[in-house]
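hi!! sorry for the late reply, been swamped w classes. u asked for the two structures so here they r. pasted raw, havent cleaned anything up. first the sequence of the first protein and right below it the tokens
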Amino acid sequence: MPKQKIPDIHQLITCVQDNLTDISTLENYLNQNPLKINRTTKEKLTPIAMACSLGNTNIVTLLLKYNPNLKLKGNSHCTPLHIAVIKYKTAENNTQKQNYWKIIKQLIEKDPTTLKCKEGFGKTARNFALKQNPQTPELAKIFDKYHTPKSHGTTVRFFKLGIKCVTSAVDYILPTP
């Protein structure tokens, strides 16, 4: 009897997106193969980045339960948050915009430190939201909500990167509701 080929996680995501299989199939796969959550394609696209690109909120919600690394970048040098912001800005209708909005919010809530991640040209997802046309002030609100410096006792840490290069990083906290 020939050995049955096990589908790849990226193939399963495509099948769920195309309604060829139920999302529970993807969930069962992840339960049996939790380490595949950060598996990349030859383009270095992670499952969460793929789901963000597709704009499928159900798949993103499921994948986030398995704690994917939201800072991994593909060949485009973008994190899943960068991808979701770009897709939000280029969405063709309000339904797509709402889906990407929900994804952006989920990603930031899952790991607010992704707000500091920069793509290949040194831009954060917030830079994409504010500096490129069309400007999206509604995105600025969500980024500002989660990217608030501590109001008291701000801690600045210095990291030495070579002999003469020093950069600073400010600690950020989530605002209390």
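now the second protein. again sequence first, tokens right under
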Amino acid sequence: MHQRNNDYQLLKAFNTMNFLEEKILIDGVIKPGNILKVDSFLNHQIDIDIIRQIAYEIKRRFKGIPVNKVLTIEASGIAIATLLGQLYDVPVVFAKKSETANSTDDKYMSEAYSFTHKKMNNVFVSRPYLHATDKVLIVDDFLADGQAVHALIDLVHQAGGEVAGIGIAIEKGQQQGGKVLREEGYHLESIAIVESMDWEKQTIRFREQPKSVLKKTNLSAES
């Protein structure tokens, strides 16, 4: 009887969730310190169907907004950005965190502190790949404190371009990044917003968002 009640509660929860929230609940793992691991489908092993749905949903949420470039930061945002670039039929640029022997000196640079790696990263994009005429959609897999997104915004502004919007797969709602970006006036859309987590109980609570039906996930640039 107890198991039946648990199954019923889980079914009720699924009926109020979107596809990504369901996936997080099923395959996500909460580690000590309330760290959410989704590397089985998002940022280590990639579930192509989930990435496709994320890309489609981000594009749907920015319907009617001109976009001629997609920008992310290496490495986990690249998969989402690539499929989104295919939907929009526009170039995809990813900011690099480390320079190589063939890195050009002609680049836009910014800084972003990584709380995961506990260090400051220099991030850059070569100047030929960002322009003043660009209307840039910034995308990433996670949004926590907003350091990485602010670095990408800075790169766009250095080039004289316009930030068309910011699309995020998973936002950590208990941290301030999303709140700050919205207060700054940016159009931010996060598909799943984690409001709270409990490692001991292995429970996740999501912020309620306007519900919509995901009608199709084919990669059509006309969607």
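hope this helps!! also noticed smth abt the second:
The first strand starts at residue 29 and ends at 31.
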